[in-house]
Amino acid sequence: MDRFPNAPHVDFHSPLDLSKAAAAVLDAEGRVSGWGSSAQRLLGHAPEDVLGQPAARLLATAPGQRLSTLCKLCQAHRPRSTVLDLCCRDGRTLRAAVTFSPLAHRGAAATVVVAAALESQRCWEAQLALLQGMATESDVGLTIFDTDLRVVWANVSTDLELAGIAQYIGRPASDLFPEGEFLSRHHPPDEDQIMEHVLTTGEPIMGMHYRGRAPADPVREHVWSCSYHRLVDARGELLGLFEESLDITERYRAQERLSLLVRAGKRIGASLDVRRTAAELADVAVPQLADEVLVDLPPAVIEGRQPPTGSAPGHSLLRMHGRTPEEFRTSPVSYPPWSPQAQSLATSRPVIDASPPEPPDGSGAAAAHSCLFVPLLTRNAVLGLATFRRSSNPDRFGPEEQTLAVELAERAAVGIDNARRYTSQHAAALVLQRSLLPQHLPEQSAVDVAYRYLPADSRVGVGGDWFDLIPLSGARVGLTVGDVVGHGMHAAATMGRLRATVRTLALLDLDPAELLTRLDGLVAQDSEPGAGDGLGDETLGVTCLYAIYDPVSGRCVWASAGHPPPIVADASGSVALSALAPGPPLGLGGLPYENVELSLSGGSVVAFFTDGVVEDRSTDIDSGIDRLSQVLTWQRCPLEELCDRAVSARPPGPQADDATLLLVRTRRLGPDHVADLELPPDPAEVAHARTDTERQLTAWGLSDLSFPAALVVSELVTNSLRYASGPVTLRLIRDRCLLCEVSDNAHTAPHLRRARRDDEGGRGLFLVAQMSQRWGTRYTASGKTIWAELAIP
Predict the structure, then answer these.
(1) Cα–Cα distance list, 233 to 3, 10, 230, 240, 300 (Å)
(2) What is the distance between the alpha carbons of residues 509 and 522, in angstroms, rounded to a whole number?
(3) 429 burial type by CB count under 10 A (0-12 exposed, 13-18 middle, 19+ buried)
(4) 161 with 134: CB under 8 angstroms?
(5) Which of the residue ranges 17-26, 541-550, 593-602 would you say has the lowest mean pLDDT?
């Protein structure tokens, strides 16, 4: 049974073989004395038609030439082959290949004639030439193995023939390339297993890539494309198998170089970090191109500054070696002017050193037998030097590999330059952001404060969160926290501008709702088209919360513009989210902002925060608020410890948003720090106010302030009694300074002016300004309060 029914039949016998060709016998006179059935099939003449007849009649040449041609061929003493035109019975002319062989038969001369169609003969000769060419001239290596997988034959193109085929005949296939390996992952890696599979199943395996060193060239590594086919005879009996192998080393390396460039385009320069970019270059190039890659850069480039110009090449460089940033080591290195490294830096061209010395950095790396030095060039500047070293790979750097190394170095140079520029801009942005945030919070008696600011884990690293503590009149304190949507320089600049605006408005003693209303109007103006400040896009997503705490009354008032409300943990330990209905974010307008008032006992802890503290990609904001509330149940702990607990409670991993946390523990000023005196609308009460002030300062041990304080109180009370219509209240507060406050029901504020010599008044507020370190006016629902602060000696 035919094991391959669809395969074409291949017959390697010549068409002039006696088993196939047309045969006839001619006597000495050129007559046909023998005519076989094969001759009848070829020309159609029956034996009775040609026997005894001159053979010349079968030639289709001119009658005068037939006999002479036939005689020459029959009288030859050795076989002669020629091409003749023969006459067929049906009148056709057949061009045939004919062989005349002399034959002695019982002493009589005779000639055996063998003929076949010339076309069949030419086809057979072409097949024979094809087989001969494959065996002697083809680049495809052919090796035949028997059923025991031992070498039987190999053509001249195989590396076995080049190394001497005789010594490999009869040896197993595993002895031919003992150190090679298959690169395909879809088949068994062992050649014996592959060949056994082909013998057993008859399924050919084609296109396997095999890497190893040939017996004829044991130094250089080659890659072959191998195919295996089973061999059977005409009866279907298994004979063995043969292997086709084609050396594709150059093509394979070209593909590897192309894939290396593709991988380099994806990897090198994606991190915007100088050290990581150098590590990416090493990781891409090792081990395919080199056994080790070293990157030498000036310290200025690593720090994000401009590369130095005009200095001697190779001096004051830092060598980075390693394949990951964690493995990277940095060591100083310099090269003398005559070294190939300095030559490469000076000429901006790659240089090959076939016998490099030991590495000068003392890294303990294996001695290299070939080094390629490539300058890192970008924008007509030399950033540094990349060194490709080979120690275990015996091949030296060829022209294609030099081109590849230059391409990799160019990509690395662009990535390093981008990283350098990013480092410089990032450092400038961080300096800007830190300069806009509070460097330290001012000392005051109203609250204890602790805070944490955590930038987002992003490439930009600069965000728009801010916080602030603003000392206000009357020992009060303003507390604010806000968030600008986005990251980068614009967000940081917007944050700084808004923080300064909030501080300015707070010093006007506006209540929280009024402050946010004015701030909303300013933001809306900035976000209008054509505002011209470049901050419009960022100011469309600003939230802010502002609070005022009074340590005398324990009253805290706050308002929110789209910002999460604070969490309050009172002195008893209960924790609750403030019942604050946030208004719209700044810049949107349309809805008013409302104040929320709460009385806080001394020792209460209030947490002001941005959404980055309570919200992340894995949890929602409600879960984050519950998590922060749980931390605040430890409110008796120091505030710094509470901040650390709150930060540690955040989910691990990269954070997408900045996180700002401001913790405040409230204090109360007791009765021994505050004195109130209500005065009827009578000018004679000015003397009583001055006397009571001196008496209270003596009780507080502040007699040294009696004269300036009495003078300030006298002037403030006089102004209130003169311009107000109702009773006047005097309050003295002993804090870090002495606070004198006079409240009335009038809404007109006094103004400091320069009095002329002939003016009878106008000098009171001037005296107040000279005696106090600060003074001002704040408005209340029932009128105004004029205050002055006197420094305590």
Answers:
(1) 10, 11, 10, 10, 76
(2) 18
(3) buried
(4) no
(5) 17-26
pLDDT of residue 595: 92
Peptide bond into 471 cis (omega under 30): no
Give the per-residue pLDDT at 501: 92
* End-to-end Cα distance, the chain: 121
- Which of 17-21, 42-46, 516-520 holds the top average pLDDT? 516-520
- C-alpha pair distances (Å), 394 with each of 141, 213, 371: 25, 12, 12
Please state the φ and ψ torsions of residue 174, each to the nearest 5 degrees: -65, -15
* Structural contact between residues 37 and 66, judged by C-beta atoms closer than 8 angstroms: no
Residue 355 CB-half CA count within 13 A: 0
Whether the predicted pLDDT of 75 surpasses 80:
no
The CA distance from 522 to 561, in Å, is 14
**H or E segment and range at residue 498:** helix 489-506
| Average pLDDT rounded to a whole number, residues 180-208 | 79
Residue with tokens 């070294």: 339
Q: Find the helix packing angle between 685-699 and 706-723, rounded to 10°.
A: 150
Question: Which pLDDT tens digit goes with each residue over 546-566?
Answer: 999 999 999 999 999 999 999
744-752 LR contacts (CB < 8 Å, sep 24+): 744/720, 744/783, 744/784, 745/782, 745/783, 746/720, 746/783, 746/784, 747/779, 747/783, 747/784, 748/723, 748/784, 749/777, 749/784, 749/786, 750/719, 750/723, 750/777, 750/786
Residue position matching structure tokens 């894939």: 259
386: pLDDT strictly greater than 50: yes
Q: Report the C-alpha dihedral over residues 273, 275, 277, 278, rounded to 10 degrees.
A: 160
Q: What is the DSSP code string of 172-187?
A: BGGGTSTT-EE--SSS
pTM of the model: 0.61
